[in-house]
């Protein structure tokens, strides 16, 4: 098992939203996941650059980000990146969950973030994407 922390990209144009997400999930979302490191970005260009780099384990996108929201950005990333890392969308209203489903998000969290739910959601998504690859 690698001792390097998994890299989680957090995108919002508002630094306080990024801080809220990072604080809610924490540095170790679950014992079996290990430590995580955050890369906080505030622009779509930064998201694209980091996602193209190939070492992001999971991205959390703010659905309310301006001028480009995380919901539309998620759909773009899922359609344009082969083997796109899993993406969690943070929305303000429970009613916006259907938009996150349309965006092909792997999971949704709703503000205000509950730390237990947010950490559990991130851990579950990371676990589901770490299934062993069958080689033949």
Write up what this structure looks like.
The chain is an alpha/beta fold. The protein has 5 helices and 5 strands. Strands 2-1-3-4-5 form a 5-stranded parallel sheet, with helices on both faces. Strand 1 (6-11), helix 1 (15-25) and strand 2 (36-41) form a beta-alpha-beta unit. Helix 1 (15-25) packs across helix 5 (115-129). The model is unreliable at 132-136 (pLDDT under 50).
Largest sheet: 5 strands, parallel
Helicity, as a percent range:
25-40%
General shape = globular
Strand portion: 15-25%
Low-pLDDT windows of residues: 132-136
How many beta-strand elements?
5
Rg calculated over all Cα atoms: 14 Å
Q: Which descriptors would you attach to this protein?
A:
136 residues, alpha/beta, five-stranded parallel sheet, 5 helices, 5 strands
Q: What would you say about this model in short?
A:
With 136 residues, this protein is an alpha/beta fold. It has helices spanning 15-25, 44-53, 70-80, 97-102, 115-129; strands at 6-11, 36-41, 58-62, 87-91, 107-110.
């Amino acid at each position: 098992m690698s001792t390097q922390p998994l890299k989680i990209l957090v995108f919002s144009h508002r630094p306080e939203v990024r801080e809220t997400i990072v604080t809610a999930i924490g540095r170790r979302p679950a014992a079996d996941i290990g430590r995580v490191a955050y890369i906080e970005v505030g622009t779509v260009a930064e998201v694209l650059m980091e996602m193209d780099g190939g070492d992001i384990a999971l991205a959390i996108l703010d659905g309310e980000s301006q001028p480009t929201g995380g919901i539309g950005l998620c759909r773009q990333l899922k359609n344009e990146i082969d083997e796109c890392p899993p993406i969690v969308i943070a929305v303000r209203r429970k009613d916006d969950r259907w938009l996150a489903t349309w965006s092909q998000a792997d999971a949704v969290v709703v503000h205000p973030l509950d730390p237990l739910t947010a950490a559990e959601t991130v851990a579950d998504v990371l676990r589901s994407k770490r299934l062993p690859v069958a080689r033949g």
